[in-house]
Amino acid sequence: MTQIIQEKALLAAGAAIGALMLPQQVWAQSTVDSSATGQDIIVTASKREERLIDVPAAVTSLGGEDLLRRNLTRIEDFAAQVPGFSFQNVGTRAVRLILRGQNSGGAGATVATVIDEVPLSYSSSTANGAIDTANIETWDLNRIEVLRGPQGTLYGATAQGGLLKYVTNAPDPSKAEAAGQVGFESVSDGNLRGQIRVMANVPIVEGKVALRLTGFYVGVPGYVDNPLLGEKDVNSGFRLGGRAQLLLKPTDTLSIRLTAFHNEQEFDGNGTLQVVGANLTPANPPANQFDVANGGELQLNAFVPTINRNRYTFFAGTIDWDVGFADLFSSTSYGTINTTFTNDFTNANLAPGLTYGDFFPAFYGEPVNVRLRQVNELDKFNQEIRLTSNPESAFFGGAVDWLFGGFYTKEDITFPQTFEIVSRANGAILTTPFPGGALEAPATYEELAGFANFTIHLGDRFDLEVGGRYAKNWQFSQVEYFAGFATGSDFLNPAVKTSESKFTWSIAPKFKVNDDVNIYARVATGYRPGGPSLLFPGAPSDYPLSYKSDTTTNYEIGIKGAILDNRIDFDVAAYYIDWTDIQILSSYISTETGQRFNVTGNVGTAVSKGLEWALGWTIVEGLRLGVVGSYVDARLSADAPEFGGFDGDRLAYVPDWSNTVNLDYSFDLSDGISGTVGGSWNYIGTRYTDFSTSPINVNHTALPAYSLFHAQAGVDFGGVGVNVFVRNLTDERATLTYSSNGGFQATGVGTIVTPRTIGVNVMLRY
Q1: SS (H, E, C) 367-409
Q2: Segment among 87-91, 306-310, 567-571, 597-601 with least mean pLDDT
Q3: Closest Cα to residue 63, out of 144, 6, 151?
Q4: Which of 142, 461, 641, 698 is deepest in the core (most CB within 10 A)?
Q5: Which residue range is the domain that position 638 belongs to?
């Protein structure tokens, strides 16, 4: 793999040199200043361009220049800059997005992910869409928009908790630009890796045609060792990708944009490490169960490599045509998501103190290792077409902004699993007396939807926004088992087909106190689709063949704006969410046979209520203080013993309090030379682990709160910039996720905050 990484790095370096050698003028930065407030920032949250403070919903916009200056390159980096936004780290490649506390641990995503007009997230809950999140590199982005609360009216399935939208910089046919960045990151107790990023914007026909190319290679330093295999920094890896965008403007009223996009990442390890755990006493865990094992050494003793890889590749075309009375927009896209990973099950537990590695040698007559190989693959086609009125057009005699649209998507999903018994002596896959077993589970998801949205202007100060969406989906699944210990005999299950119709709606009145301050209320619904269950061989007749969608209804009130000549800006929202028919991986006990099955089902209800704030103060010119945070009280509102939860239990991996304080100062050093310095404090409150009914797991235990400090400083010489940053300045080893068992020699496993990271970047702009 090292050779592959080196080859890809050389290709990226060659692209960077080519971009930077273009004979261009100095790139005029399209700065989104950290002091910008809602009257300056334009967003597309409502599928039309609006000022941020005019949107009657909770929306956060993070500008591309701010992301670059703070070195916020991933979801794990920028989540703390968004109120009510948290995540569950699932190792090196995977992350679960959580907005306003909506996390049930199910397989389906509760937060939709979009890049420009391309939906990137699984609509289906059949596969691992909840954690196979498109974690896009933020290089050469215009901004990131995060919409909090249900967005089902405009964005449909899986947007029941909200939306993460990446907005790229479009090709510019009026000027040539190029930029490149080289640097490195070094992790405490780990290694050092280099990075390179490039961008070139090339006008082909002035004012009519332009091409924008973006590419990056990011080496990711590791810090977890595997002494069993004699390997160091096994969670090292790389991220690689880019975009090619062609813009055609044959007339002033017609724009066509073609995009090819690729993003991939690969890691030698899954990012977990050994913690003390409670392997032998899950019912009575020790007080230090979250502490790093092995005397504090960052280790994961795995018998087989746990390589993780995923790739996103999409092709898209958009047409934007001003037809006079309205704007006609079409977006067509096709793409694939491929995730491949290997897990070492040798240390996984069958019972407290009994692992697969202990159990199998009695059958094979020699020490063995046990591994799982899995591939998740999604092929996704999307088509959306919509007609959007010009601002405040006449509609039935009144001033109304309106939007009508239709949407179609088709997903083909496969996820083969192979369970292998491997000789520890020579690495051979053993099949006698029985193989490990395997399964394939092809599935399809097809959806057709229509939606509409109206903003009714009831005077100079009062608006009413109303929207609705009707969607119908059809799904198919058929599971085939291949003989082995994990799967029994060869068996082809009957096909399971489901269909479901859903209507979502939103109502949002808004009152303009003045041009810079708005008060709004919003009631909105969202949903996550149901679907077919994965059948087991010999499933009893009362086994559930499907599960329903779950639904949220969100009530919120907010105020946003700026005062004192825009020196103070604010965005505050309070909300209450009802969550019904929660999808969860639960235990189903057959009344016919008494057998217990782990299935996706609908269990119980929950309520999430909270307060979110984003406050900014420009103390003096160039010096800005920002505070971003939330209080979230997300709990079950009914007993759900099927998955180990009871009325009043907090939902998993949702911090009760979170807060970020940013202090930034920008200044001139001399003519043409400027500097910036800044720092952040992030506080993440108490969270709880997943629910569990397994006797080998500690159920729903509280993780300690933690604080992180980050700092950065930079100097811009006009065409060359140097930036130095430190993340996790105090080198905290805070626990992010936890399992009480599954580690080497009866330990647990977990993930921690990345240790202190120091980095340097040099940027050239032309």
Answers
A1: CEEEEEEEEEEEEEEEEEEEEEECCCEEECCEEEEEEEEEEEE
A2: 597-601
A3: 144
A4: 698
A5: 2-765
Which of 220-224, 506-510, 545-549, 726-730 is least confident?
545-549
What are residue 301's phi and psi, to 5 degrees?
A: -80, 95
Q: Given pLDDT bands bounded at 50, 70 and 90, which one contains residue 591?
A: low
In tens, the pLDDT along 204-244 reads: 999 999 999 999 999 999 999 999 999 999 999 999 999 99
Grouping H, G, I as helix, E, B as strand and the rest as coil, residue 14 is helix
> What does the alpha-carbon distance between residue 727 and residue 757 come to, in Å, rounded to a whole number?
5
Largest CA distance in the chain: 85
Split at pLDDT 50, 70, 90, the class of 588 is low
Q: Please tell me the distance from the alpha carbon of residue 701 to that of residue 748, in angstroms, as a whole number.
A: 14
User: What pTM was estimated for this model as a whole?
Assistant: 0.92
Task: Kindly report the number of other CB atoms within 10 A of residue 366's CB atom.
Answer: 12
**Bridge partner residues of 617 (DSSP):** 568, 625
Which residues are registered as beta bridge partners of 560? 518, 571
**Confidence grade of residue 183 (pLDDT, cut at 50, 70, 90):** very high
Averaged pLDDT score across all residues of the chain: 89
DSSP structural state of residue 512: E
R_g of the chain computed on alpha carbons: 26
Of 520, 522, 613, 610, nearest to 574 (Cα)? 610
CA distance 315 to 381: 10
Q: For residue 634, give the CATH number of its domain.
A: 2.40.170.20
**474 within 8 A of 497, measured Cβ to Cβ:** yes
Kindly give the pairing relationship between strand 111-115 and strand 162-168: parallel
Report the number of distinct structural domains present in the chain: 1
pLDDT tens column, 383-401: 999 999 987 566 655 688 9
- Structure tokens belonging to residue 150: 């249900």
Sheet strands (E) in 582-729: 583-589, 596-602, 605-620, 623-636, 657-670, 673-684, 687-688, 702-703, 706-716, 720-727
Residue type, 736: L
613-663: pLDDT as tens digits: 999 999 999 999 999 999 999 999 998 887 788 999 999 999 999 999 999
Query: What phi and psi values does residue 126 have, to the nearest 5 degrees?
Result: -70, -40
Mean pLDDT of 507-527: 96
Q: Which residue, among 765, 761, 766, 764, has the nearest Cα to 182 in the 3D structure?
A: 761
Residue 165, class by beta-carbon neighbours within 10 Å (0-12 exposed, 13-18 middle, 19+ buried)?
A: buried
Say whether 622 sits in a helix, a strand or coil.
Answer: coil
Report which secondary-structure segment, H or E, holds 152: helix 152-155
Query: Would the CA dihedral through 640, 646, 651, 652 be positive or negative?
Result: negative
Instruction: Decide: 532 and 549 in contact? Cβ < 8 Å.
Output: no
Q: Sheet with 747-752: list strands edge to edge.
A: 273-275, 747-752, 735-743
Give the distance from CA 235 to its chain's centroid: 20
Residue 442 has pLDDT above 80, yes or no: yes
Reading the block at residue 68, the tokens are 């670059």
The answer to whether 378 and 122 have CB atoms below 8 angstroms apart is yes
Residue carrying structure tokens 């909770």: 58
